[in-house]
Design brief:
Length: 186
């Protein structure tokens, strides 16, 4: 072996040994890390914030039948996550990841009194996990109601949907204004 190669190997070995010594010293507490004491503390009470500490809540009226029937269709809205929309072609239930909702929506009626349509319910099966899971789809009928008149607009807030044929989509309703109200309250 040439002396030049031997010098390079020796320098590498010295460097590796130096790194190992430093790591062992850190782990053994030479620099004081291992000598830190951990004490147990008994919790006798937990303070809960008072109502005055709570953030202000977004005021949202209850569903009403007082919505003006003359309200133009473009002033009748609903929600897709926290976004106000008119006649959406999709409504997500899992706003953070988009793993569940209704897409390809076609509305046959849209007014202050409610909306009726059809679409395709989808849900990630998360098998073996959500990142590599496959989506399942099913045709659904859907209806929006629960009109709330506020800010010169009418919001349809309650969504009912049910599967046509198989039972992938649960026949259930949901308040689709919930995420909007939560975001608005922050």
């Amino acid at each position: 072996m040439s002396s030049e190669k031997s010098g390079k190997y020796r320098a590498i070995w010295i460097l590796l040994i130096l790194v190992a010594v430093i790591l062992v010293a850190l782990g053994a507490g030479v620099f004081g890390y291992a000598s830190l004491k951990h004490e147990s503390v008994a919790v006798t009470s937990i303070e809960t914030p008072s109502d005055s500490d709570a953030p202000p809540q977004f005021a949202w009226p209850s569903p009403t039948s007082a919505a003006d029937p003359a309200t133009p269709a473009n002033q009748v809205l609903t929600f897709n996550c926290e976004t106000q929309v008119s006649k959406p072609d999709a409504i997500l239930f899992a706003c953070a990841d988009g793993y569940e909702g209704i897409e390809k929506i076609s509305w046959s009626t849209w007014s202050v009194t409610g909306a009726i349509g059809t679409g395709t319910y989808f849900r990630n099966q998360c098998d073996p996990d959500c990142a590599s899971g496959k989506f399942a789809y099913q045709k659904v009928s859907l209806a929006l109601g629960g009109a709330i008149a506020t800010e010169g607009k009418v919001f349809l807030t309650l969504l009912d949907y049910g599967g046509v044929g198989a039972s992938l989509a649960p026949e259930s309703g949901t308040d689709i204004s919930e995420f909007y109200r939560a975001m608005k309250s922050q």
